Amino acid sequence: MAESPKEINPQTTSPLFSRIPPEVRNYIFKLVLTAYEDPQLRYSRFAPYYRPGYTCAHRIDTALLLTCRLIYAETTRLPASINERTFWFYRSPPRTPENDFLPNNGPATWLRRQELSKVHIFVQQYWLEHERHGFFAFADHLWEHANPTHLTITLRHTDWWWWEVEAPLALDPKQSGRPSPEKHSQPSDPFEPGSWGSTFQKVKGLQVLQVLQIELETVEGKKGELDAIVNRAKGWKIPLGDEKILILDESRTRRTGWIGGKFGKSITEIELHDQLILPDEELGVLDQGVDGFDSDEDILDEDHIEGSHSPENLALTPDHPTNVDSNDHSTSSGSHSCNAPPSAKERLEAAGVKFNDADSVKGLPENKTSTYYVVTLTWRAHRL
To answer: pLDDT tens digits for 35-62?
Structure first.
């Protein structure tokens, strides 16, 4: 049973409560309770969930809530309200539940649900487009019990339909099921029943949504296909119901990129569960090949880095993926042999993409890395 304010010591002798203004104190509490990447729990660079912002397991230090009852009363809702709640629908990090719809674990869980403001879902495309058990089922359940106003949907390179055989990229909120890469809906076309775009109007709770972000990732070689989808997305106007509609804010479109581990032609669930979080000293060993990985050509290329178990090679393991900012149109001069074709990095540089911190992949052979291209689109809710 919750204690009443009269049962809580007001801590009048503590400078934290007697001298520091409440707004400053609240700002301090938010800094302490903000999630961060734990460098002691790094992911393998060849895992499908490894990417900028997700190079390590996320952690929230909640020891602050145990210091006294007054601090607990002031901060108990902060972890849920200030941090983005992430859901993984397949190919999730180790020890992270998949298909987690926030099960009911008692009154405290219901309270935290009400405080959720930002939700981020990593989805495979077939799950997004599945009418009964995919995005609609998730949204219908979550927004029945919570009121997040910001939703981010991410499709990674390995989430697109038949990415293994480099199938053409296609995404359409108005088509039900798998969209056609040849036939695209027009702005005047209605949303087909069962389409993922129709979910926003069908699920009543989604009317509280203020911002929708869709993050689309592919390899550099399919940049043109993704740009074509982005161009068509300018005409996507998604109804929310209650006389509200989501309209693309083109000023918020971001094009970024990064260099990370290269995937083979397939990823199995068994292989994914073997990609455990490792302490710092073991990261390089997993990346370069260990038992269970070094003979698997579906996860890594067939060649090892010679002497990968040596301290010299382990020291070359990057802490973070290389970030690429496509909004910075300054170019850097790259040189390559007049007989050799330009690399993915050089092609992006020629398109005005600036590579930041390129040394972070130092020591990795080119055949073990891929250059990824990411576009983030933002829709905002408007009244009709």
So the answer is: 999 988 888 878 888 888 898 899 999 8
Alpha carbon distance 179, 170 (integer Å) = 6
Q: At what angle do helices 107-115 and 135-145 cross, to 10 degrees?
A: 100
Residue range 66-70: mean pLDDT, rounded: 92
What the block records as the tokens of 21 is 């203004």
Residue 311: how many CB atoms within 10 A of its CB? 9
Q: How far apart are CA 204 and CA 144, in angstroms?
A: 8
Contact indicator for 291, 309 with CB cutoff of 8 Å: no
- Please tell me the distance from the alpha carbon of residue 368 to that of residue 224, in angstroms, as a whole number: 23
CA distance 354 to 120: 27
The CA distance from 72 to 43, in Å, is 32
Q: Which token pair is 67? A: 């210091």
pTM of the entire predicted model = 0.78
pLDDT of residue 291: 30
**Cα–Cα distance, 44 to 321 (Å, whole number):** 11
